Prior knowledge:
By secondary structure, the protein is mainly alpha-helical. The protein is 81% helix and 0% strand.
Amino acid sequence: xxxxxxxxxxxxxxxxxxxxxxxxxxxxxxxxxxxxxxxxxxxxxxxxxxxxxxxxxxxxxxxxxxxxxxxxxxxxxxxxxxxxxxxxxxxxxxxxxxxxxxxxxxxxxxxxxxxxxxxxxxxxxxxxxxxxxxxxxxxxxxxxxxxxxxxxxxxxx
Length: 157
């Protein structure tokens, strides 16, 4: 069994000379998160400062965040996970293109799989915090399973 240091050395070896594509893909992922979280975080800042926020604006902002993260960020996170996996295993250096290509390959399946993962983690978290954390780690490899095993349904992944 490999040690932690061996995994770390292998990861650094795969990134050697490939920092730019990984950095660009990471900046794109972070930008997408900020685009959808911007209005939602602005609302929480207003609520903390004691200002009133119209209920319609709050509902629209939250819906935009929820649907945006589901429809855009979920397949991108699946694609990003697979692109980094491809970089490590096959040395494929087109990380940004692979992020979008593999995330959109089975778009509805990826969105549904990530939705179910979030739903199950949230339902387990209703019991107490500890079961939610346990299931969060149990379902952590869902993006990889969605890509590696296209024959499985989203619920099976």
